[in-house]
Amino acid sequence: MTDPEILGYTRETGDFSRLLESVPYARFIGLECERFGDDLIFRLPKKEENLGNPILPAIHGGVIGGFMEMSAAIYLMMSQDSLRMPRIVDFSLDYLRAGLNRETYAECRLTRQGNRVANVMITAWQKSRSQPIATARAHFLLED
Q1: Which residues neighbour 45 within 8 Å (Cβ) at sequence distance 6 or greater?
Q2: Buried b vs exposed e over 37-49: b needs ≥16 C-beta within 10 Å?
Q3: pLDDT digits over 16-61, tens only?
Q4: CA 124, 42, 93, 64 torsion-angle sign
């Protein structure tokens, strides 16, 4: 399957497995996604390879950032008509508490979309949405 075919299949069926397998970093960290109505919830499974501090044990901060950035890009790609991955312009991440070695979830929200640029807010949590482990803001350049 070509990339446009994979994206079309994902949009039609809601099955993100082929799309996520086609992105090497998403495959490496184990990124998963499920659709609940119009919402997408991204999941980073508990995985020893994602640890940065094995003593706590805590997920590496770069893995958390990459998980959130990749979630925002896929979220934006699914909400656009474009067949390409949007290009990141800026990414600002606030770590709020340690991301322990357990399942981590992320939710994205489009805050502004222009003709060329889109802004996305991302929230990551583990046990409760009311206690996020990180929040981020991402700005993407949309392809024509």
Answers
A1: 30, 32, 103
A2: eeebebebeeeee
A3: 999 999 999 999 999 999 998 889 999 999 999 999 988 989 999 9
A4: positive
Is residue 68's pLDDT more than 70? Answer: yes
Tokens 């929040």 found at: 135
pLDDT at 143 over 70: yes
Structure tokens, 138: 């991402």
DSSP E strand boundaries for 23-83: 32-36, 39-44, 51-53, 58-59
Task: Starting at the earlier edge strand, list the strands of the sheet with 32-36.
Answer: 32-36, 39-44, 104-113, 117-125, 132-141, 87-95
Rounded to whole angstroms, how far apart are CA atoms 13 and 121?
A: 25
CA distance 71 to 142: 16
